[in-house]
Amino acid sequence: MALTIPVAALAHAVVFPKISTPGAYEKYVLRVPNERDVPTTRVELHFPAGLRVVSFGEVAGWKLEVLTDTAQRITGAVWTGVLPKERFIEFPFVAVNPKDSASLIWPTYQTYEGGERVEWTNPDTASKTPVSATTIVAATSTGATASRTSVYLSVIALLFALTALGVALRPRTARPVS
Predict the structure, then answer these.
(1) Are 46 and 106 in contact (CB under 8 A)?
(2) Of 5, 116, 153, 175, which one has the fewest beta carbons inside 10 Å?
(3) Of 43, 132, 122, 125, whose CA–CA distance to 80 is shortest?
(4) Confidence class of residue 17 from pLDDT cuts 50, 70 and 90?
(5) Where does 4-138 sit in CATH, by number?
(6) In the chain, where do the E strands start and end?
(7) pLDDT tens digits, 144-159
(8) Which element (helix H / strand E) includes 155?
(9) Following DSSP, what letter does each residue of 45-71 receive, concatenated?
(10) What span, in angstroms and rounded, lies between the C-alpha atoms of 134 and 28?
């Protein structure tokens, strides 16, 4: 019993990555596990406002229906196929992030053979059906400075190593014996 609780706690419909940057073209992946003894037959994902979905990856054995609004903006996707028990599947897509920091919420609906529907929409992350979220945040200047410092230190270390190698390999002149 104790071993099944952690597994059940981790088995959720989740969109990756969990963190991205404003305005980025990002490859997202919706990962859906099958937690039942019957196959999953339908997965529906609604895209957050401010996100512009531009393309979808092919998923073998699954049919994609793209949902749009009256302005023909992509608002969601529905995949139909068969996902056996104790398996998971990933649905890739590319989107352009909002230009400002945001929290993207990914409502997902999973339908099993027989009609049972699980709604991964609960904002409480401790619930049995939490909604997935991605944080859009600008890279900090501190992180960029630390990255540049690492590059500079690496270049300096490389120069010292090459100098030491040059000294070690230089031809030695013979000294007269007295």
Answers:
(1) yes
(2) 175
(3) 43
(4) very high
(5) 2.60.40.2230
(6) 14-16, 19-20, 25-33, 40-46, 52-56, 63-68, 74-83, 88-96, 102-106, 108-112, 117-120, 132-136
(7) 545 566 676 777 777 7
(8) helix 141-169
(9) EEPPTT-EEEEE---TT-EEEEEE-TT
(10) 10
pLDDT above 90: residue 132: yes
Tokens describing residue 63: 């049919």
Of 47, 137, 36, nearest in space to 91 by CA: 47
| Nearest of 5, 2, 20 to residue 98 by alpha carbon | 20
What is the per-residue pLDDT across 28-57, written as a single tens digit (0 to 9) for each? 999 999 999 999 999 999 999 999 999 999
113/38 Cα distance (integer angstroms): 6
Burial of 156 (0-12, 13-18, 19+ CB in 10 A): exposed
DSSP of 19-35, one letter per residue?
EE-TT-EEEEEEEEE--
Q: What is the DSSP letter of 173?
A: P
Residues 6+ apart with CB under 8 A from 19: 134, 135, 136, 137
User: Whole-prediction pTM value?
Assistant: 0.74
- Token output for 32: 């859906």
